Amino acid sequence: MREGIQKTLRRDSLPPLDRLRAWLDLQIRFLKKAEMRNGCLIGNFSIEAADHSEAIRRRLVEIFDEIQQSIADCLRAAVKARQLRPATNYDELASFLYSSLQGAILQAKAERSAIPLERFKKFLFSTVLR
């Protein structure tokens, strides 16, 4: 997870929205390679384990926060680069984006199809991030 974030969302040599697109493409490639059977390890573990251990639940929240912070930092850079409107609330947008991605991953896993992920990505870049 961290390696993928370093290679994409935190790769300052790329324009910020290109970094975000690269990160999403990385997620989609990973899931396609597993034929949409695995889903997101953190998401899957959250569903299965969060109710069984408070320590595990807290750690999962930390991991989600770390991922969302990386997305927010990328979106903040997009605002600075004038790729997004100055009034963009990048923290809220990052939370929305990651929650929506998790939903698309769950749907893709159930359907065993990348279509929900591709739809999410298309809508994100064509509508949400305009």
Provide structural commentary.
- The protein has 130 residues and is mainly α.
- It has helices at residues 2-7, 16-33, 41-49, 54-80, 90-111, 115-128.
- Helix 4 packs across helix 5 and helix 5 (90-111) packs antiparallel against helix 6.
- The mean pLDDT is 91.
Question: What attributes does this structure have?
Answer:
mainly alpha; 6 helices; 130 residues
Summarize the structure.
The protein is 74% helix and 0% strand. It is built from six helices and no strands.
**Percentage of residues in strands:** under 5%
The overall pLDDT average reads 91
Helix content percent band:
over 70%
Largest sheet: none
Query: What's the order of the H and E elements?
Result: HHHHHH
Total DSSP helices: 6
Rg (C-alpha, Å): 15 Å
How many beta-strand runs?
Answer: 0
Given the C-alpha coordinates, what overall shape results? globular
Low-confidence runs of at least 5 consecutive residues? none
The computed structural class is: mainly alpha
Terminal CA distance: 27 Å
